[in-house]
């Protein structure tokens, strides 16, 4: 459903609307959400995590005027260590004790919950419900600056939004010196879970900096903030300071907690499972104490691994198996699993890989930009709903299979997506980038059928739009872009045909014009056809003309036109195309301030255009501007981002050139660091780019040795050069 926003400069009358309607919070981001529908479905089992939860709750309820402990507490731990379960329990305890608590559970690839721009409005809405005295101050702040309500426009920083909508209203209530019933049992608590799951790294740092400043200026404010996350550099660099209490969850991961967790699960299973019950009646306790100790040792403190292993052991029998394994049969297999999750993923997925449509279903779930319900997946893939269920029912150890058709299918943990999209880890289960092409074509075909049934349909029509149709409108082009290098000529033909048919139904729809323009442009890149490139530029201009400055999609059309002109410049060398492209791409970037979801695309596009002008004219100002653009783009691409290697290559190329012209050592140092990251994480043994980058690193090390005389660079140069020569020789020998 579209996000409700207010036009800047408009008069706003609050009386008819409740504050919640004005703020438009994310309702499924708090600890009160339906966790079956909105992951993570986390909760501490009785008897586990008692001490660590007690420590946090003691700190949370303590009087800030007498307790010298910091207002801000950061608990960090590795994947599966139970951070979200602890956050949930801390929130639930506050509710039970009638202490005011608000929360935001970030979750990657869950739409707005992986972004930060609605954090302030969501927390403010919850705060007004928990502490009603804050509501007038929140309304006053909105009346004074309506831009606080915009999604990602209006030039209002996250720090300002938090200050005006959360901190200032709360402080105003406290400063009145009147009794606030909600605060009689302890301070106000804000819980931010999974901060590392937020895509907006720069704004996360801004959020933390703003908190630290606020608490420094208000040391007696009755407010606590509890943050959990993995250890990420952009978070650690801000929170590892004296003003923050640190909790390393590794210090609290005891075998006792895991043993208690498994004991409760197996006791319940023995009561519910008739096969296990019959086995226990004849053979006694199961699993034996010895096997339980082996499981605890094997699990190694990871609650997510413990939960997944238990689900694997107790998985329901498949009616199609001629000799279905019992839980007792699966226990020894579980003990042989890789203690990491890859082994679990492999063994679980293998249970369904023989079923019809398995690869299509799993690849689709892995590559979707936003999860769809079971019926939506079936509708998109043009198969029956029961066929999707048939595949997923065996995978409930790793995929959350909903019980209702309106609930999306989600992954139990985001590491499953990383596994499925990394060929070296997933093997036969790899979700190949070419599947993006299939999803794109299926979206186009589905959208055409919908338009034929309802030719006037649009996002602003007020009509009900079903999940797959929404997905087609907002995400189909992303799949075309991600699958760009995998199109067969016939697939481009199909895409262009479908786009033309859709545009014939709504000839003045800018987004349909843009769809056709991009399809024609991408095919022209493959065919090198000048006429197709000219057609795409003409269509892009038409889309820009239909979108005035205030149009929310103008930046998209500007970027597309700029990129198409840059492509023509590369073919013809016409400087006018390059100059116009840079101008258009600058305007697009200005319309996409952080944390705009498409800022990364604009940063790279403008950087590429400036790089080409520098190569053409030699102007140093262009190269100097290119490097910070590529740096910011790289910051928006975490280690798991599929495009990070491209970002590293872009920046590496620019830094090498800059060092050659300036001889400034810092550029060389940065280039070496990025080259080493490419080799360590993106170009493993056997990758086609490894030899070339090994040679690049050797050359860079030689340059640094020449500049500094560091002997270790010379030693490393020799080993890198040796590996490059060895791999090159092996590659030559393998050619028949």
TrEMBL record:
Repeat listed as a keyword: yes
Ranges where the Nephrocystin 3-like N-terminal domain occurs: 65-230
Gene3D superfamilies in the record: P-loop containing nucleotide triphosphate hydrolases, Tetratricopeptide repeat domain
Biased composition (Polar residues): 727-736
Taxonomic superkingdom: Eukaryota
Keyword Repeat: yes
SUPFAM superfamilies: P-loop containing nucleoside triphosphate hydrolases, TPR-like
Biased composition, class Basic and acidic residues, residue ranges: 713-725
Region Disordered, residue ranges: 711-736
Record's protein name: Nephrocystin 3-like N-terminal domain-containing protein
């Amino acid at each position: 459903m579209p996000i409700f926003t207010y036009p800047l400069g408009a008069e706003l009358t609050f009386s008819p609307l409740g504050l919640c309607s004005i703020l438009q919070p994310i309702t499924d981001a708090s600890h009160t959400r339906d966790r079956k529908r909105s992951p993570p479905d986390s909760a501490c089992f009785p008897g586990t995590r008692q001490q660590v939860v007690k420590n946090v709750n003691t700190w949370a309820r303590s009087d800030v005027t007498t307790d010298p402990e910091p207002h801000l507490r950061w608990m960090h731990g590795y994947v599966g260590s139970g951070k979200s379960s602890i956050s949930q329990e801390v929130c639930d305890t506050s509710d039970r004790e009638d202490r005011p608590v608000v929360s935001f559970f970030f979750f990657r690839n869950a739409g707005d919950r992986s972004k930060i721009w609605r954090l302030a409005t969501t927390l403010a809405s919850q705060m007004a419900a928990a502490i009603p005295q804050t509501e007038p101050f929140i309304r006053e702040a909105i009346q004074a600056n309506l831009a606080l309500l915009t999604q990602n426009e209006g030039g209002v920083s996250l720090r300002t939004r938090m200050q005006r909508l959360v901190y200032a209203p709360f402080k105003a209530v406290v400063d009145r010196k009147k009794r606030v019933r909600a605060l009689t049992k302890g301070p106000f608590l804000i819980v931010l879970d999974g901060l590392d799951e937020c895509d907006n790294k720069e704004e996360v740092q801004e959020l933390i900096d703003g908190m630290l400043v606020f608490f420094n200026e208000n040391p007696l404010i009755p407010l606590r903030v509890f943050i959990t996350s993995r250890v990420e550099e952009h978070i650690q660099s801000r929170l590892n300071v004296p003003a923050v209490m640190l909790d390393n969850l590794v210090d609290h991961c005891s075998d006792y907690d895991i043993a208690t967790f498994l004991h409760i699960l197996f006791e319940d299973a023995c009561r519910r499972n008739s096969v296990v019950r019959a086995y226990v009646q004849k053979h006694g306790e199961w699993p034996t104490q010895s096997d339980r100790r082996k499981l605890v040792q094997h699990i190694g403190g990871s609650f997510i691994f413990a939960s997944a292993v238990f689900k694997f052991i107790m998985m329901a029998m498949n009616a199609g198996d001629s000799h279905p394994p019992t839980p007792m049969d699966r226990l020894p297999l579980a003990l042989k699993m890789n203690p990491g999750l890859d082994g679990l993923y492999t063994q679980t997925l293998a249970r369904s890989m023989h079923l019809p449509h398995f690869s299509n279903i799993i690849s689709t779930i892995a590559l979707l930009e936003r999860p769809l319900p079971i019926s939506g997946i079936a509708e998109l893939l043009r198969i029956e709903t029961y066929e999707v269920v048939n595949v997923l029912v065996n995978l409930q150890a790793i995929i959350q299979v909903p019980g209702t058709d309106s609930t999306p299918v989600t992954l139990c943990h985001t590491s499953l997506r990383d596994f499925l999209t990394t060929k070296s880890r997933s093997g036969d289960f790899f979700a190949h980038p070419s599947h993006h092409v299939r999803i794109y074509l299926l979206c186009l075909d589905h959208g055409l059928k919908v338009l034929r049934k309802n030719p006037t349909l649009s996002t602003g029509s007020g009509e009900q739009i079903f999940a797959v149709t929404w997905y087609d409108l907002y995400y189909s082009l992303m799949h075309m872009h991600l699958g760009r290098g995998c199109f067969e000529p016939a697939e481009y033909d199909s895409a262009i045909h479908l786009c033309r048919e859709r545009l014939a139904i709504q000839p003045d729809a800018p987004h349909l014009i843009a769809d056709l323009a991009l399809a024609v442009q991408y095919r022209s890149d493959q065919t090198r056809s000048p006429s197709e490139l000219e057609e795409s530029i003409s269509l892009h201009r038409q889309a820009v003309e239909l979108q005035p400055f205030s149009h929310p999609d103008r930046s998209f059309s500007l970027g597309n036109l700029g990129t198409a002109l840059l492509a023509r410049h590369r073919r013809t060398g016409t400087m006018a195309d390059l100059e116009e492209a840079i101008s258009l791409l600058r305007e697009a970037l200005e319309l996409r301030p952080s944390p705009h979801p498409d800022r990364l695309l604009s940063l790279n596009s403008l950087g590429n255009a400036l790089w080409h002008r520098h190569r053409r004219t030699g102007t140093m100002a262009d190269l100097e501007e290119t490097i910070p653009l590529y740096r910011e783009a790289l910051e928006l691409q975490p280690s798991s981002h599929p495009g990070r290697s491209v970002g590293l290559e872009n920046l590496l190329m620019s830094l090498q050139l800059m060092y050659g012209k300036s001889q400034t050592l810092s550029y060389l140092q940065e280039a070496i660091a990025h080259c080493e990251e490419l080799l360590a994480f993106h170009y493993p043994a056997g990758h086609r780019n490894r030899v070339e980058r090994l040679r690049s690193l050797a050359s860079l090390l030689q340059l640094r040795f020449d500049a500094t005389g560091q002997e270790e660079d010379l030693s490393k140069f020799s080993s890198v050069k040796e590996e490059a020569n060895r791999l090159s020789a092996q590659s030559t020998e393998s050619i028949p």
